[in-house]
Specification:
The chain has 204 residues and is mainly α. It folds into two domains: 61 residues, Arc Repressor Mutant, subunit A, CATH 1.10.10; 130 residues, Tetracycline Repressor, domain 2 (Orthogonal Bundle), CATH 1.10.357.10. It contains eleven helices and no strands. The termini are far apart.
């Protein structure tokens, strides 16, 4: 009886670590984008078959959303942290500096999963593309709100358009992401950050 039970246990498919598998999926989507990541590549990276992926994470779209959630909570958690810096200049300095570090980190795919993912989506992936654009816009909105608050504190002159300034910073970040995927070094990106900070509006 015990032998039979032992044989059944040995015949069961090996269990897998859910978070480890999700991290592997994140790396594939980060590198390939939603469309570029095939199910064959995902099953190979995760080391589990399709039925197991569907049972644990849902379909490819659902797996991507879970991987994106992990990306937002982990690698880019610094975005929310940057908003708590005491001045608008320090907010931007932390946001762009941490971005430069992440975008060129040799332990991860280059570039921003959100920026590059939205750019690489084609027909058939419009829903995912809209969601990625919404996340990207969310960063911009957070910056705008932070800059508006800075104006109430006398940290930014009221003559500055907070919305335009947020678009400016977001555009710098998006450009840095594209540059990073083309081989730009952290030194290259930090040079851009320094120019942006040098031109930062003086407090009123």
């Amino acid at each position: 009886m015990n032998t039979e039970k032992s044989n059944k246990q040995r015949g069961r498919p090996p269990a897998f670590d859910h978070e480890e598998a999700l991290e592997k999926a994140l790396q594939v989507f980060w590198l390939r984008g939603y469309e570029g990541a095939s199910m064959a590549e995902l099953t190979e990276a995760l080391g589990i078959n399709r039925p197991s992926i569907y049972a644990a994470f849902g379909n490819k779209e659902e797996l991507f959303r879970k991987a994106l959630g992990k990306y937002l909570a982990g690698p880019v958690a610094y975005v929310a942290e940057a908003m708590n810096e005491p001045t608008s200049r320090q907010v931007v300095e932390k946001f762009l500096t941490k971005s430069a570090e992440l975008l060129t980190n040799p332990n991860n795919p280059r570039g921003c999963m959100i920026v590059q993912g939205a750019l690489s989506c084609g027909q058939g992936s419009e829903l995912i593309q809209r969601e990625l654009i919404a996340h990207r816009k969310g960063y911009e909105d957070a910056l705008r709100q932070r800059f508006e608050f800075a104006q109430t504190q006398g940290d930014l002159p009221n003559s500055v358009n907070a919305s335009d300034l947020a678009k400016y910073v977001a555009t710098i970040h998006q450009g840095m992401s594209v540059q990073a995927t083309s081989g730009a070094t952290i030194e290259d990106l930090m040079a851009v950050v320094e120019v942006a900070l040098k031109n930062w509006p003086a407090s009123s």
